[in-house]
């Protein structure tokens, strides 16, 4: 007689009519994992400090990642290696989400930390070493957060599915499976990426399948070919380690990509995704939090000290630095434009209130007051007054046009 306990029930392909699409919605992101679009998560192996996390977050976002990874609690082979910043890292990850709109995924090691990690992160990661930690699986099964379940380094696919079954039996059906390489006799690579796992899992289960090319290959030069192979084989997403300076990373530096290499990878992934009828979800630009006014002076002044440090650097390093700075500029432009969109939306709201109050939509006094503030704002930001005033004039013109269009539309409707 077949032993029912050996067969997956909830994870089986036929358990539901459609493939599972795991949605992660935050103020800044609306991500669907398991649909047509391929999703990329990226970030450092471990959160090391605020600066490196925020800079990595900005660069992976401008490259097209929609999720930020970063270990707070690290499962390290040696107890003497860096173990992660713990709860402090969770706060930093939440700050990175505020600033960039990226959703956060981070590993939970201990069942007692599931609620804490879930309060800060948008998705939980169960690492390879914990794939069969049943207390942890039960606890994440009770969580409302999606779970990225990594395949154990010596686990069969049936065992992976049974681990997912534990989570789903606990009530959490938002499981994403992750192939991250398995242990074989090969020593040239950290693990062996089981590419066949992707089509096998896609056939046997309705759950989405991610691939981690970083832990699979263990070397930076392997990340891109493995990632592309994964997408060609049908993976729904990638989770990639990126570090602003891989050579000085506290963990997994040898397999981490520098931001520029990661940006190249995402472009290549988009090409391969297109060739198998998919696309890459590069997210939508988001404004940062209302009060997220980082001191602009700090950023403007920040460049000057650096000049002397740059003098001794080799050309390739300088070019890499330039590419990184350009990535950051692109991110800032996206932020400015989405802030501008918010400003126009507020202007239109003001316009509606003005019409309801029976006052004129165009308000020269208010516009003058905005321009008057230009001097103050320019001083605070260390920017030339005339240029800033021209910028504000442009913003006012966009907002005024939107309000006048709304007014005309309202009048046309009421006629
Ligand atoms: C990680 O993602 O940082 C990690 C430790 O991965 P794995 O559990 O696959 O080794
Ligand atoms: Mn790692």
Count of distinct strands = 11
- What compounds sit in this structure? phosphoenolpyruvate, manganese (II) ion
Pick out the low-confidence regions. Answer: 285-305
Listing every helix as H and every strand as E from the N terminus to the C terminus, the arrangement reads EEEHEHEHEHEHEHEHHEHEHHHH
Helix segment count?
Answer: 13
Q: Alpha-carbon distance between the termini?
A: 77 Å
Shape: globular
Main beta-sheet strand count, sense and barrel state:
8 strands, parallel, barrel
Q: Which whole number gives the mean pLDDT?
A: 90
As a percent range, the share of strand residues is: 5-15%
Q: What helical percentage do the residues reach?
A: 40-55%
Name the strands of the widest sheet in spatial order: 3-4-5-6-7-8-9-10
- Report the structural category: alpha/beta
Q: Radius of gyration, rounded?
A: 24 Å
Briefly characterize the structure.
This protein has 415 residues and is of the alpha/beta class. Helices cover 49% and strands 11% of the residues.
Polypeptide structure, described:
With 415 residues, this protein is α/β, with parallel strands linked by helices. The chain has helices spanning 50-63, 87-100, 114-120, 134-141, 157-169, 197-204, 213-217, 220-232, 259-275, 296-310, 315-357, 364-381, 385-414; strands at 22-25, 30-33, 37-43, 67-69, 103-107, 123-126, 147-150, 175-179, 209-211, 237-241, 279-281. Helices cover 49% and strands 11% of the residues. Strand 5 (103-107), helix 3 (114-120) and strand 6 (123-126) form a beta-alpha-beta unit. Helix 1 packs parallel to helix 9, helix 1 crosses helix 11 (315-357) and helix 8 (220-232) runs parallel beside helix 9. The radius of gyration is 24 Å and the shape is globular. 39% of the residues are buried. Residues 45, 215, 241, 251-252 line the site of manganese (II) ion. Phosphoenolpyruvate (PEP) binds at residues 45, 71, 75, 127-129, 150, 180, 212, 215.
């Amino acid at each position: 007689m077949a032993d029912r306990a050996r067969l997956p029930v909830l994870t089986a392909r036929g358990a539901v009519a459609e493939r599972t699409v795991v949605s992660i919605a935050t103020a800044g992101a609306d991500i669907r994992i398991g649909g047509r679009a391929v999703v990329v998560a990226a970030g450092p192996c471990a959160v090391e400090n605020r600066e490196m996390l925020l800079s990595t977050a900005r660069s992976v976002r401008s490259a097209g990642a929609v999720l930020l990874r970063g270990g707070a609690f690290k499962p390290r082979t040696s107890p003497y290696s860096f173990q992660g910043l713990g709860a402090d890292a969770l706060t930093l990850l939440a700050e990175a989400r505020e600033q960039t709109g990226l959703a956060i995924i981070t590993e939970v090691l201990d069942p007692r930390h599931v609620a804490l990690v879930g309060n800060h992160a948008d998705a939980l990661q169960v690492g390879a070493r914990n794939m069969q930690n049943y207390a942890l699986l039960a606890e994440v099964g009770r969580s409302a957060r999606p779970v990225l379940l990594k395949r154990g380094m010596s686990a069969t696919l049936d065992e992976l599915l049974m681990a997912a079954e534990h989570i789903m039996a606990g009530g959490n059906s938002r499981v994403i499976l992750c192939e991250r390489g398995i242990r074989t006799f090969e020593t040239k690579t950290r693990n062996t990426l089981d590419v066949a796992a992707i089509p096998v899992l896609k056939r046997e289960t309705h759950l989405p399948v991610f691939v981690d090319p970083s832990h699979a290959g263990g070397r930076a030069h392997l990340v891109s070919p493995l990632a592309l192979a994964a997408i060609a084989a049908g993976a729904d997403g990638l989770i990639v380690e990126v570090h602003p300076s891989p050579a000085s990373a506290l963990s997994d530096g040898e397999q981490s990509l520098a931001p520029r290499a990661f940006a190249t990878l995402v472009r290549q992934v988009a090409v391969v995704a297109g060739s198998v009828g998919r696309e890459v979800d590069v997210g939508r630009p988001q404004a940062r939090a209302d009060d997220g006014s980082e001191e602009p002076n700090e950023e403007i002044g920040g460049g000057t000290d650096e000049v002397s440090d740059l003098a001794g650097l080799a050309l390739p390093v300088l070019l890499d630095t330039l590419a990184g700075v350009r990535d950051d500029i692109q991110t800032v432009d996206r932020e400015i434009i989405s802030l501008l969109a918010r400003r126009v939306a507020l202007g239109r709201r003001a316009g509606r209130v003005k019409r309801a109050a029976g006052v004129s939509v165009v308000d020269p006094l208010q516009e003058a007051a905005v321009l008057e503030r230009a001097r103050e704002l320019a001083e605070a930001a260390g920017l030339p007054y005339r240029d800033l005033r021209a910028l504000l004039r442009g913003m006012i013109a966009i907002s005024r046009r939107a309000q006048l269009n709304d007014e005309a539309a309202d009048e046309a409707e009421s006629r």
